[in-house]
Design goal:
The complex is a heterodimer of chains A (about 110) and B (about 110). By secondary structure, chain A is mainly beta. Chain A contains no helices and 11 strands. In chain A, strand 9 and strand 10 form a beta hairpin. The chains are: A mainly beta (about 110), B mainly beta (about 110).
Chain lengths: ~110, ~110
Amino acid sequence: DAGITQSPRHKVTETGTPVTLRCHQTENHRYMYWYRQDPGHGLRLIHYSYGVKDTDKGEVSDGYSVSRSKTEDFLLTLESATSSQTSVYFCAISGGQGASGYTFGSGTRLTVV
Amino acid sequence: QQQVKQSPQSLIVQKGGISIINCAYENTAFDYFPWYQQFPGKGPALLIAIRPDVSEKKEGRFTISFNKSAKQFSLHIMDSQPGDSATYFCAASGGFKTIFGAGTRLFVKA
């Protein structure tokens, strides 16, 4: 999607290994979010950021950490990947808080074997 | 955990028909109710949204109906087209919190 890119698009990793997913935006938006999408669960918030070095937990944050050292980049790290973290991960950005709509990236499909 | 309940899970509609997807929420603090459309292999895209001070919003063939007292809202797709075949998510937002419904997979038969 224009203005927001995620990398990698696909990744297969082994159980117990650390994994970092990257979200890069060119919109200079203050708010950035990481969601995971699983069948039957919709999108669930992992972590979000409301500014450089300002982050907070979402509803499914266990096993995940994030960092935001620059406005444009928001990194999601799986400290020690587990099979339950196999999912599609989406980054989203917004100019305001949630009540202004999100722009989502194209997603990263992560498989933990 | 606050929920947004979305129904149906899947929907098949004839071309030219009306598609209706329903959502219900619990938290009265939510103040923004968007709908997202997602095609396979893509991220969700904002389709249309409404705030609780209005009961209906229409954009082209897409209409949101909002019932504040019942804490329910719905998406109506008029004159449904095969190109509308996608997964639709409702959501409810307030502050930093956005809760998504589980999604509805819509298939429009040509």
